[in-house]
Design a protein that fits this description.
The protein is α/β, with parallel strands linked by helices. It has a four-stranded mixed β-sheet. The protein has a two-stranded parallel sheet with strand order 1-2. The radius of gyration is 17 Å and the shape is globular. It contains four helices and ten strands.
Length: 168
């Protein structure tokens, strides 16, 4: 495998997740809050955000911090929940169809939906909803230029949203 010249640094709030990650990778792994990153401004060429928008209450703050630590022209890669078709307002039917409940525009933390799988992770810890317009505007407000938006996967209704943006 050819080196990219990059050094991977991981950050997570969960000590349990970091313990699991340390078993798999020797990269520096830090416990911390993504809305107050322990790094100087402009030190990273690339920041990757994976599956975070539903697990944090301050998504705009998270993007603002990611933009702060990026060098000018640096790349931010977001990969996570599609806010229109995957979230606290979505009820999955057995036939593959989705029911979109009117809670889509209710931003912030949702503790429980009666349609959530009982005992599942979301039923136990809840999840945050960031409607699509708010998600895109958070990129813009953080000073990031959106270059591409993807809905990866083969399924007829996308559950994933990926965004490539650069720091200005």
């Amino acid at each position: 495998m050819r080196s990219t010249g990059r050094t991977v640094v991981g950050l997570d709030r969960s000590g349990d997740q970091l313990r699991l990650a340390r078993r798999r990778d020797l990269a520096p792994l830090l416990q911390g809050d993504g809305t107050t990153l322990p790094f100087a401004s402009g030190v990273f060429g690339t920041v990757t955000m994976l599956w975070v928008s539903t697990d944090i209450g301050d998504f705009p703050g998270l993007l603002g911090e990611a933009a702060r630590v990026l060098r000018t022209g640096g790349l931010l890669l977001f990969y996570g929940v599609h806010p229109c078709f995957n979230g606290p307002h979505i009820e999955n039917r057995e036939d593959g169809a989705l029911i979109i409940h009117p809670t889509y525009h209710l931003k912030g933390w949702h503790q429980r939906g009666s349609w959530w799988r009982q005992g599942g992770i979301r039923d136990r810890v809840g999840m945050s909803q960031v409607p699509l317009a708010d998600l895109i505007n958070a990129f813009i407000d953080a000073g990031l230029a959106i270059e591409r938006v993807y809905e990866p996967g083969e399924q007829p209704i996308p559950s994933i949203l990926a965004i490539r943006a650069s720091a200005r």
